[in-house]
């Protein structure tokens, strides 16, 4: 099922209306779903491994708190922020500018030109830190059970 971006995300409180929440693929909706975005986003950082460690531990702690409250939407949003911490820091690990594609390139087959790798080992370490917490979250037994129960809704 495709993620429904047509919902009025600005007016929906997903804590009060969890039945409207769609998991989607990967990080879809991570910057749209309130009040969770506003609760988690201030802690999401990955500039250095120390900052990434503090951030990922805080977000993982929030993930566990949401699970304890039987708040699947909050737990899934925390999982998405952990995943996004990995993917964004990985992008900066591969491309110091954070840009993966050349903004000035167009090919005859409409494929974007990927910029050459310009690796950053510090961001790679940050990515590894977030990846470990993301994997821990997505493999959590209670989370997996809640995910299975939420999908059919």
Overview of the molecule:
The protein is mostly helical. The protein has a domain of 107 residues. Helices cover 50% and strands 0% of the residues. The protein is built from 5 helices and no strands. α2 packs antiparallel against α3. It is globular and about 45 Å long. The relative contact order is 0.15. The mean pLDDT is 91.
Describe the structure using short key phrases.
about 150 residues, mainly alpha, about 50% helix, DUF4385 domain-containing protein
Tell me briefly what this model is.
It comes from Anabaena sphaerica FACHB-251. The protein has about 150 residues and is an all-alpha fold.
Query: What helical percentage do the residues reach?
Result: 40-55%
Binned strand content:
under 5%
Order of helices and strands: HHHHH
The mean pLDDT is 91
Stretches where pLDDT falls below 50 for ≥5 residues? none
Largest sheet: none
Number of helices, counting only DSSP H or I runs of 4 residues or more: 5
Radius of gyration: 17 Å
Give the strand tally.
Answer: 0
- Category from helices, strands and their pairing: mainly alpha
The N- to C-terminal Cα distance equals: 12 Å
How does the overall form come out from the CA principal axes? globular
Biased composition (Basic residues): 93-102
Protein name: DUF4385 domain-containing protein
Region (Disordered): 93-117
Pfam family, one: DUF4385
């Amino acid at each position: 099922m495709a993620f429904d971006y047509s919902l009025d995300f600005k007016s929906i409180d997903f804590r009060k209306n969890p039945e409207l929440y769609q998991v989607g693929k990967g990080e879809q909706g991570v910057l749209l779903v309130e009040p969770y975005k506003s609760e988690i986003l201030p802690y999401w950082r990955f500039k250095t491994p120390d900052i990434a460690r503090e951030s990922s531990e805080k977000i993982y702690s929030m993930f566990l708190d949401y699970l304890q409250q039987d708040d699947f939407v909050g737990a899934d949003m925390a999982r998405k922020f952990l995943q996004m911490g990995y993917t964004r820091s990985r992008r900066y690990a591969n491309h110091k500018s954070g840009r993966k594609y050349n903004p000035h390139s167009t090919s005859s087959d409409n494929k974007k030109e990927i910029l050459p790798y310009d690796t950053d080992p510090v961001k790679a370490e940050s990515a590894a830190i977030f990846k470990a917490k993301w994997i821990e979250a997505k493999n959590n037994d209670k989370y997996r059970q809640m995910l299975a129960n939420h999908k059919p809704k």
